[in-house]
Amino acid sequence: MADRLAALFTHFAVTAHTFHAGALCGINSLGTDEALGQLHLVRGGVVEVFHGNAKPVRVEVPSLLFYPRPVARRFVTDSVVGADMVCADLRFEGGSANPLLAALPEFVFIPLERLAESTPVLSLILAEASNDKCGRQRVLDSLFEVLLVQVLRELMEQGQVASGMLAGMAHQKLRKALTAMHDKPAQPWSVEDLAAQAGMSRTTFANSFKEVVGVTPGQYLQSWRLGLAQQLVQRGTPMRHVADEVGYADEAALSRAFKAHTGLSPRDWRKRRNVVE
Questions:
Q1: At 277, is the pLDDT very low, low, confident or very high (cuts 50, 70, 90)?
Q2: Which end of the chain offers a freer environment for a tag, N or C, measured as fewer CB atoms within 10 Å?
Q3: Is the Cβ–Cβ distance between 226 and 261 less than 8 Å?
């Protein structure tokens, strides 16, 4: 079976940077950096997590807290004992064009006992966080990136994402069509072709795709192609090559679709991104 996540991570990398390991005491505000998500491992202590005026989430057992996108929040712990935590920033390449960001919920809370397959990685993270050996930062960052993949597997396999791309990737048949689009974006896919990939009739496929993923197959394919185009444009790839890579007939067709999607021509979009970064 084709790897459902391979193309996503090939084109839209996610990198981790561990920024805290140890006790977190008192009141701490997080989630203010607009460019980053975060993963938190609570390995001991009690944490109350406040999201605006919503009822706080009380964390009393070793748990994982995952914020794919910036969400303003407060972690409240005992002011003396605190809570033992290991935390990492997550940078999703492509920013808002990264399809994982649109597919993930705002907040994921999973007790570590439910991540049985991740026990070896979690053990390594906690062991590395407790020592001061050379290369510690690099090892922790790499382990958090592995953990993220395993969390995505958990969300798909346990049906914890109700709609969107990850819900489609969890579907036994639709995931075959999604993987085909991800792997071969330049192919002139028709609804019939994609239905055949999924092993479904055209009507059943189209209806199921819209119901589960939330958009039509054509809309999803266009969004995927233009997300890839943004990545290539940002890297300075000539437009004629971008058009070939993502399945547009020529530069003009791609430029029209790109502007409709982003509100800017490829050149202006790249200039703005360079200024921002």
A1: low
A2: N
A3: yes
* Strand, helix or coil for residue 79: coil
Number of helices and strands (H, E) in the chain? 12, 9
pTM: 0.88
On the CB side of 87, CA atoms within 13 Å amount to 18
Q: Token match 């996540």: residue?
A: 5
At 242 the three-state DSSP class reads helix
Per-residue pLDDT tens over the stretch 30-56: 988 778 999 999 999 999 999 988 899
Pair of tokens at residue 222: 């266009």
CATH 1.10.10.60 intervals, the chain: 171-276
What is the third-level CATH fold of 171-276? Arc Repressor Mutant, subunit A (1.10.10)
Sign of CA dihedral 195, 200, 206, 208: negative
Give span(s): CATH 2.60.120.770, the chain. 6-157
Q: Could you say which DSSP state residue 31 is in? A: -
3-state helix, strand, coil in the chain (%, to 5): 50, 20, 30
DSSP string, 144-155: HHHHHHHHHHHH
Model confidence pLDDT, tens digit, residues 107-166: 999 999 999 999 999 999 999 999 889 999 999 999 999 999 999 999 988 877 878 899
Q: Which amino acid is at 69?
A: R
Per the listing, tokens 């712990």 go with: 77
Q: Nearest 5°: phi and psi at 50?
A: -110, 125
